[in-house]
Amino acid sequence: MPLTDLCPEQHRELLRQRWKAWCSAVGEAQVTQVENALDSDDRQRALARSFVGSDFFVQQCSRSPDLLYRLVGEDDLGIPVPDLAQLESEQALEKSLRQLRNRVNAEAIWRDFAGQWDIPAVCARLSELAEVTIQAALDWHREKMVERHGEPRSRAGEIQPMIVLGMGKLGARELNLSSDIDLIFAYPEPGQSDGDQYEGKKSLENQTYFQRLGQRLIKSLDAVTADGFVFRVDMRLRPYGDSGPLVSHYAALEDYYQTQGREWERYAMIKARPVAMSGEGAAESAEELMELLRPFTYRRYIDFSVIEALREMKTLIQRQVRARGLIDNIKLGRGGIREVEFIAQAFQLIRGGREPALRVRNLLKVLPQLEAGGHLPEGAAAQLREAYLLLRRVEHGVQAERDQQTQTLPPEPERREQLAFALGYQHWQSLENALVSARGVIEREFDEVIAPPEESAEISASDHWEMLWSGCARVDDRDLWLEQLHNAGYQPAAKALEAIVNLHSDRIVSALPASSRLRLDQAMPLLLAAAAEVSEPLLALERVMPLLRSILRRSAYLVLINENPPVLTQLLRLCSASPWIAEQLARHPILLDEMLDQRRLLQPSSAAQIADDLRQEMLRVDSDDLEAQMEALRHFKQGQSLRIAAQEVTGALPLMKVSDSLTWLAEAILQQSLALAWQQVTEKHGAPAGASADDMRFAIAAYGKLGGLELGHGSDLDIVFVHDAEPQQYTDGARSIDNLSFYTRLAQRLIHILQTRTLSGPLYEVDTRLRPSGNSGLLVTSLTAFEKYQRESAWTWEHQALVRARRVAGSERLGEAFEALRLTLLCERRDEQKLRDEVVEMRNKMRAHLDKSNDQQFDLKHGPGGIVDIEFMVQYAALAWAQRAPSIVRYTDNIRILESLTEAGLMPAHQAGHLIDAYKAYRSEGHRLALQQLPGVVSGDQFEAERKTVETTWQQMLG
């Protein structure tokens, strides 16, 4: 057949291949029918253009053997409405809709390339397809919902319809071949379905009812099956975007658009129209909905208030185009489709309230109205129309090739020539010349709208981030944003974009007052740029997002970020380094104030400085307001903890100094908390004889990590309370109580101050189980009773714990007595073999219950050769040898005890040095893991040398 005679030489081989593939797929009979029908040059030329221009078209004709014959022989195949009664399953519905979609798209390609339909006709047909398929899916699923749950009704008993609004190109009947469809779902009134009136049916609230209906409708259109999809459905234009409800009732819609609707939503609402509906009274309800939305879209006056918003939108478009160099994108590039749409919709928003003639959805219909109203110069409407139609036709040609959503001209010369041939041009150069001319027309008119553009020769880095933040939700620009994020170091870029879009479309962001939204819009580009400068941008971004959400309604913090770039930089570095820091900031944004003074943030404090700072802080609080005092303590602790963590992750504080600082902080807070507790209890009951605020005859002894100056972030406080007052005597207040009851209440009040969960959380978790007799013993013990218990009843493990005990708050005099008693008890002679057996037995019990080590991982604390092994060896050495060398129990921290053992000649220096190095390494890794909020386990192949050293020493000492 002479098909190839109507085809340029360069396309003939492609045409032969595709024709051969079609012939093989449909069979000889169909081939003969089509060949007989190709009885004119026009029909043969249409076939050649369609086969060369669209692989998708060839595929559809191959799947439906009679399709090509019908297209050649008939003028219009129409859109048959699916017979829902014949569709017994959801799968049958989906198959029917997809086959209809593929057939209609194939016809649109044929009619366009054949020159039988112009672009308005093609767009109208594709829009009609969307309406038919949406309506069919809606009706089918509504019927199934009624069968299961009854009819949805208002509280007055009226059946509630569901209205589907088509936005964008669908609303304007301008759909192209691969358009998404932007939808909004609505129903008139709240209520519930009447399913409970019928046996076997379950009633649902209308919101739930219509949400399920909407979800099923989307799935029937959007899901990709073996037959492809019908339309990609985009619901992000609904109130609050992705974070909002899928379906809204009319009152909720009205409230949202009156109080929170934004200019871009007005811009989108210009093209909105009902495209499908189901339920009794649907037509009247749809009309009511459009009347409800009209005041939001069109103001009753000439709306100059929107000019600034449109000017910003226009500037954004220009920046994007310059930034991307979108020469080949016929939608987003200069002189592209979007600029024509902007020209029309800008005037519609400004003047549509006073000029009803402008309230039309279709762009081609509004252009002549704009010229007639004097808003466009004479002749401009016709020029813009022709330019727009050419761009839309080229857009269809690009998308027809592979049924892909793209507006970018193909880069390959051969594909460009195929496109030109399919659209009826002799060669690419002639099509390109036409495009250049058309885009020049649009570009000149676009630059005249609103105000002349303020051109900038260079696009700054901040411009790029501003464009990304403001346009992150636009699907058309997704590839641009991904490229920008990838180039800036965000890996993977898709995850970063998802986080940004989620925040941008978050309901809380949509609900912000204008001033707060402006501050956020200023902050986000700065944040994105600053995050790109840290080692792991995505990690920093993800960790700072909860903080951003927590300060959105307290936007003064956004001002702090906007006006203090070093604060933002430090914030991202710290959040990137530690999720613990990020979490603390998100919970307590007031801590951002700590970051204002960068020198102070990273400057370590001494114990005296911390205590003095806390005293000064407490002087600012009303001494009669306990709640305010408790909050002040918590704010101070959180601020100091943040500073210490910042100093740790930045290397300003080494490991041992970190623990020192955290320990000093706990001591200062214990002393202040005890002072508060003393004030409250003495005001009520008076004080014991000889006791005062300076010497309470009460002391707090620290055990464990606090006693050993080894506190970590989030550590509990192991403490024991002692007193030396006469237990049977009474206090001197009006409501006198015995001294033991007084000190018990003092300790209880102190624990209350420390552990109560206020708005800022607890100060510390307190553990008092190391007191004599544990939980069954008295909360407060006299020093005499403490000594008697230690000498007569204490277990070996309690003597081990005493190695790390020291006074941390309360009476200095009593504390010194406690220290002296501790030294005496630790220096008593012991049976070394019995001591060794009991220490090993206790270690084995602990390991059996607590060790998380296995073949793949090592438990830093409890694993063989880990921290506890070192601690037990130190404690054994202290208890076994202190009688010979009391100096080894002067200190309570493991490292100085090990150093003392060497000084006393009880342990070789190299052996003690190895244990110290291993202990530091374990604790350093433990601190790092704690700041990463990870458990204290590492890979089984880590610390092999340290573990071997510790286990060898264990065998030598206790094996």
Topology (SSEs and partners):
Layout: H1 9-26, H2 28-37, H3 41-53, H4 55-63, H5 67-73, H6 90-114, H7 119-149, E1 152-154, E2 162-166, H8 168-171, E3 181-187, E4 191-193, H9 206-222, E5 233-234, E6 247-249, H10 250-259, H11 263-269, E7 273-278, H12 282-297, H13 305-324, H14 337-351, H15 363-372, H16 380-402, H17 413-422, H18 428-448, H19 461-471, H20 478-487, H21 493-504, H22 507-510, H23 514-531, H24 537-551, H25 556-563, H26 565-577, H27 579-587, H28 598-601, H29 607-619, H30 626-649, H31 655-685, E8 698-702, H32 704-707, E9 717-723, H33 739-755, E10 766-767, E11 780-782, H34 783-792, H35 796-802, E12 806-810, H36 812-826, H37 832-850, E13 857-859, H38 867-881, H39 894-903, H40 909-931, E14 937-939, H41 944-958
Parallel strand pairs: 3-5, 3-6, 9-10, 9-11
Antiparallel strand pairs: 1-4, 2-3, 2-7, 8-9, 8-12, 13-14
Helix pairs in contact: 1-4, 2-5, 3-6, 3-17, 4-6, 6-7, 7-9, 10-12, 13-14, 14-15, 14-18, 15-16, 16-18, 19-23, 20-21, 21-24, 23-24, 23-25, 23-26, 24-26, 24-27, 26-27, 29-30, 29-31, 30-31, 31-33, 34-36, 37-38, 38-39, 39-40, 40-41
